[in-house]
Every structure is written in structure tokens, then in C-alpha cells.
# Entry
Amino acid sequence: MNKKTSKLIKILLSLFALNLFSLYLYFSHSHSHSQHHNQNQDRLPFTETHFQLHPPHHFSKAWPIIPSYLPWSQNPNVGYRSCEAFFGNGFSTHLDLLPAAGSGGWFRCYYSETLGSSICEGGKVKMDNQKIKMSRGGEKLEGVMGRADEEELPTFQNGAFQVEGDVKSGFKGRRRKREGENLMSDEFIDKYVPQADILKHTMRELLGTIRIADAKEFDDCDQWVEEPTLLVTRYEYANLFHTMTDWYNAYISSRVTGLPNRPHVVFVDGHCTTQLEETWDALFS
# Structure
């Protein structure tokens, strides 16, 4: 064995010994920390230990600090069918169907004459999933191949969505609405959410089911979501182009309504899972 080989072996043995020593320090520290943590847990009151078993609350993600996510001041004086009117600033007609009053619910829409459609938002809104008919959704593709699209798109019964409160004065001076009545009339929906060439317009159907409910009806909710949430019905959910338009529409809806953080997303459809859902998770909360 020459000197060069002997020196190389010594270096390798030294490195091996150093790694063993590092592993010893790591595991001894980890074991000590674990024992200390367990002793502290044993001394905690039951209520505090029980509380720590619950997962932490997941808050909305902040918008990235880039120019397109800075505060967005819309210009109401944009020309009909202009470039600005097509991209966000066209939703300049504000429609207060249920003005905010006290701790009750509220509901309003933003209408774009250029796009011929509306973005709507509300507070104290209840969703009754027993009145929404569609396939379960979220399955693996292999298990639902051959299922018709019609089965995966939602059908709403009246009252599928409810908003707490009462209208003191109807929209644009119309008569006062009573609890149990639908929030929007057919004439309102035809004017501000027209059918156009869309064969199944789920947003029209959803808005048509919203009725005004008494505050007591909100006591039996299984879950409350306090943070902004987007309701999304996807068409061609596995198609990249159509999904990109969904991402864009979700972004525009968030900006028009002035959401301070990225909203949560609820898919109101019965589609199976796709890889594109990973991008939904990354873009929104």
C-alpha cells in the first residue's frame, strides 16, 4: 500500500467517524427534547392538552406582492366594449339587493354591460347541500369513466342558498320583500345574468334559488366559514384552456369585490379529481 492510498483511507475513516459523532449528537438531543416535551405534556391540564389536538385554523393566503395584486381602483368611466371594459373595469354598475344593516346579511352584484354578466357577493349566506343534486365528485377518474357530464353539473332546488335578513326597501323602490321570498326576481336575473347562448347556466340557476331567511334558520348550520369563499362550477374541468379561464374569472371576481386575501374555493360540481386541482390549491387558499 503506497502513501497516497494510506492517506486516502485515513481521510475516509476520519469523515466516517465525524459523521457517526454528528449522528450521536443529533439523536441524543432529539431523545432529550422528546422526554422533556412528554414530561411537559403530562403536566398540562386535560383541557389544554385536548385543545392542542385540534389542527390550527387555516387562514387565507395573502396576495403576492407584485403590481397586479396591488389595491385595484376601478375606473367607472370606461367605454362600452373597450379593452378596459373587457378586463375587470367593466363591472361598474353596482346593484344592492340587500343592503348591509346591523349584523344581518347583505347581497350585491356588479354588472358589466360589455360582458353581459354579473359578479355577485353576499354575507351571512347559507348553503343547503341537501337541495343540490349532482354526483358526489372527487373520485378517481378510473372509477367514473363513462359518467355523463349532466350528472356532474349541479341542479338546485329553491332555497339551496339563503341569505339572512329582510329588505327594507325593494331594489330601486320596489315593494319590500318578506322572509321566505326569493331574493331576485326572474326579470332581474334575465337583465343582469342573461342566458345568452349558454345551454346550462348554473350561476343563473343558483341565484334564482336564493331566498331571504330568518336568523333562526342559520342556527342549525354544520359549519361556518368566516373568510371569503368563491363558489366555482367548472366546465371542461380537465381541459387546460377552459381551466385557465376559470382561474382568470376567479381572480377577476376576487379583485372586483376587493377581497383583501386570496379566497377559499368550493367546487359546486361533481367532477372527479384532476391534476389541475393542484394549481387551484396553489393559487387560492
